[in-house]
Amino acid sequence: MRSHRKIGVGYLLSRLLLLILLAATFFPVLMMINMSLKPNVMIVNDFLGLPEKIYWINFQKAFHFVIRPIFNSMFVCLISLILILIVVALSGYTFGRMEFKGRKFLYTLVLAVMMIPYTLLIIPSYNIVNGMHLLNTFWALIIPYVSGQQIFGIILAEAFYRSLPNDMFEAARIDGAGEIYAFAKIAVPLSKPILITVGITAVVAMYNDYIWPTVAITGGDEMKTFCQIVFNNAAGKGATDMGLIAAAFLIGTVPLLVATSSCLKYYVQGMMVGAVKG
């Protein structure tokens, strides 16, 4: 017989708290959708009211407004992601599977870098990029992103590679396989969930970044990223068309939503693997 779970006060309070948290999370999103479907005058006069007629002009204007910045952000994220995954896979395998002098010291330095707040690195990063004459170029975003986003991935990959059974690698070495073959044919295929987890985390952070692009890209709008161009206009001078801004935000989240949802299964799997084996 199936036992019936007794519903107590704690059960009801936990579900009520969960509903409150969900409402607090999704209410701003729903309001942004509501704003995107109304003209700016109606937003100002009746912020919480539903649109009397759907105002699609906001999305038409927003599409032409953010299409270039979205492609800029996607280009920066794609190049950075490729470099990040290469560095993470190689570094994680080196720290997790290979023995050499200074390995623990170098790995401790990696952990120490992770403890430094992001904002403290803005001025040094700016001076480095400025010294390399890369300001107002995409490389001014790509190089700091690669150097900053790799830290979490290295730690996660190191824990995963270190937990792999030695028997697989010993069998490969007996068959004459070298370290490069063991890395490419054994370690990398098994670490697919981990690398996808690192990739999603990095892409979300880079795509949503506003501070560093504002510091490094100060030229014309043709080089600016999605968050940079939209946030700058949202906090612009004079009257701001909030319906246009809301529609721009919704359009800009589509590429990120598609990318993350298509890899969500591997992302959850990678987080579980990293949590259990780390």
Give a quick rundown of the structure.
With 278 residues, the protein is an all-alpha fold. Helices cover 75% and strands 0% of the residues. It is globular, with a radius of gyration of 24 Å.
SSE diagram, text form:
Elements: H1 9-36, H2 40-45, H3 57-97, H4 103-114, H5 122-131, H6 139-163, H7 166-174, H8 179-190, H9 192-207, H10 211-216, H11 226-234, H12 242-262, H13 264-277
Helix pairs in contact: 1-12, 3-6, 3-9, 3-11, 3-12, 4-6, 6-9, 7-8, 9-13, 11-12
Protein name: Carbohydrate ABC transporter permease
Membrane topology: Multi-pass membrane protein
Transmembrane segments: 12-33, 70-93, 105-126, 138-161, 182-207, 244-268
Q: What structural keywords apply?
A:
MetI-like_sf; MetI-like fold; membrane; transport; mainly alpha; MetI-like; transmembrane helix; 278 residues; 13 helices
